[in-house]
Amino acid sequence: MHIVFVGANIPPEGNSAISIFRPSERFGIGVWLRLMAWKISFMDKAVEEDMRKTLCNDMDEATVQQVLAGGKHPEPPAIFYELVSRLQMPSISCTYIKLLQDQSILPPSKQDEMAANIGAKVLTLNTGHTAMLSRPHELAKLLNGIVSEITVQQE
User: What's the CA gap between 70 and 101, in Å, rounded?
Assistant: First the structure.
């Protein structure tokens, strides 16, 4: 068994996802999450601009339009505040795919910390946060390579 994380927020054991940020960043993210959850109409333009900047920064306009047409459904704020524990999990090998153009809340330097939190092998992909949309073939090639490597190790 093997787990692959792609630009994921993996906080230190016993902490929450929001804990990886400085206090000033936590406050801003908290306010943003609550405003988005309340679905205040004046936020629509701000949400679209934020999505373009953070999730679509490396996409062509056609792909951006597909993302925006899919709706603006924010993460529930609670997932950022729930404490994480991996103590009951079995030991499983992991790979972390670091996204080099990620402009979301996980820039590459933060992704190094996330990978270290789980002792993952790190691979890189020169893409933004939504690699499965902006660079699906490159992501698939990396994933297939991981599967091939694991298969060889198990033989």
Answer: 22
Residue 96 forms beta bridges with which residues? Answer: 5, 122
* Res 73: pLDDT: 66
**So what's the pLDDT on residue 51?**
82
Residue with tokens 């603006």: 72
Q: How many Å apart are CA 59 and CA 105, to the nearest integer? A: 17
pTM: 0.84
Q: Phi and psi at residue 77, in whole multiples of 5°? A: -55, -30
